[in-house]
Automatic annotation (TrEMBL):
The keyword Transmembrane applies. It comes from the Bacteria. This is Branched-chain amino acid ABC transporter permease. InterPro entries: ABC_transp_permease, LivM-like. Residues 317-356 are annotated as: Disordered. Keywords: Cell membrane, Membrane, Transmembrane, Transmembrane helix. The keyword Cell membrane applies. Residues 331-341 have a biased composition (Pro residues).
Length: 356
């Protein structure tokens, strides 16, 4: 079987396994925690789309996660619209918010891009804190309903399955983006922006579009999170939210897209376990585990696993490599080639002429 066929079959197996895991998750753990995991998984995939495939590290994606949460809550509370429409509206708000921020940021790279996006996110945080008449200030938006066409979805178990399709569609969109020609151009820009620009690609325009798409996916995740918990708070806009999702991406593996889901599951489960146990130094434990994993798995958890699988597929076993150059068992050894006769009394040059 060809390597391409094996890779395609392996991808299908992983997609099916991920779908099954998402469907059975609220049966295995507390449903609100399960909802947190899938929402943060989509948020991590959105950040990885920008970091792993475009090469831009954003510390300001909390603006789109938290901004969409507020927009979704306001649409439901004051517009009276069902929450699916509100989630879409929150994602649109996040994309529109990303346009001016991205336009002013994508011309920078490295730490400069990270700091500029962080500054914009903190500006939005202070704006939400001061605009108490709309955002509720420090109290946030509370009592966001979950009704849909008369159905009562206040039970977290049932709402998990109502919000899961939005998360799955967001992950499918991220997967399609990175596998499209547009995604290939993003990778080329990440690897060598000067060469991509020389080939005629408008680098800043591609980066801006990737930034907006990443913000829209983060907005979907933030909207589902706000509806699922029934509130939107300032914590969603704070810089620690951006730092946490970046940590999830690094834990799972940068540029793997699905690794963020593993990082989200580890961080959310660990935080829930420590909070339930009454431990207050959650940041110390999560930070220590993050350092250990980064030191042991330089490519992240899923990135390391994928690298090991790829290495095993491409490297033949030592026994096979040795047998390839040996004669089959029981076969006669090949006779040595006869030496070229040298004419008697001839010179070396004459012998060379005879061989030619």
């Amino acid at each position: 079987m060809s390597r391409l066929a094996r890779s395609g079959r392996g991808g299908i197996v992983l997609l099916v396994a991920g779908l099954v895991a998402a469907l059975v998750l609220p049966w295995l753990i507390y449903p609100p925690v399960a909802l947190d995991i899938v929402c943060w998984a989509l948020f991590a995939a959105a950040v990885d789309l920008l970091l792993g495939f475009t090469g831009l590290l954003s510390f300001g994606h909390a603006a789109f996660w938290g901004g969409s949460a507020y927009a979704t809550g306001l649409i439901v509370l004051h517009g009276g619209l069902p929450f699916p429409v509100a989630i879409i509206g929150g994602a649109v708000f996040a994309a529109l918010l990303a346009l001016p921020i991205g336009y002013l940021s994508v011309r920078l790279t490295g730490i400069y891009f990270a700091m500029v996006t962080l500054a914009f996110a903190q500006m939005l945080y202070f704006l939400a804190n001061q605009w108490r008449g709309v955002t509720g200030g420090e109290n946030g938006l509370q009592g966001i309903p979950r009704d849909l066409l008369g159905l009562d979805l206040n039970d977290p178990f049932y709402f998990y399955y109502a919000g899961l399709p939005f998360v799955l569609l967001g992950l499918a969109a991220a997967w399609r983006i990175v596998r499209s020609p547009f995604g290939r151009v993003l990778v080329s820009i990440r690897d060598n922006p000067s060469r991509a620009r020389a080939l005629g690609y408008p680098v800043e325009r591609y980066r801006l579009l990737a930034f907006v798409l990443s913000a829209a996916l983060a907005g979907v995740a933030g909207g589902v999170f706000a509806i699922g918990h029934g509130f939107a708070s300032l914590d969603g806009l704070y810089w620690t939210t951006s730092g946490q999702v970046v940590m999830m991406v690094i834990l799972g593996g940068i540029g793997t897209l699905w690794g963020g889901a593993i990082g989200a599951a580890i961080v959310v489960q660990l935080q829930d376990f420590l909070a339930t146990a009454g431990f207050e130094g959650i940041g110390i434990v999560t930070g220590t585990i993050f350092i250990v994993i980064v030191l042991l798995f330089r490519r992240g958890i899923w990135g390391t696993v994928r690298h090991l699988i790829a290495t095993r597929r491409t490297t033949p076993p030592l026994s096979s490599a040795a047998d390839a150059g040996a004669a089959p068992a029981g076969s006669p050894e090949p006779a040595p080639a006869p030496a070229s006769p040298r004419p008697a009394g001839g010179s070396p040059d004459a012998a060379a002429g005879e061989r030619c």
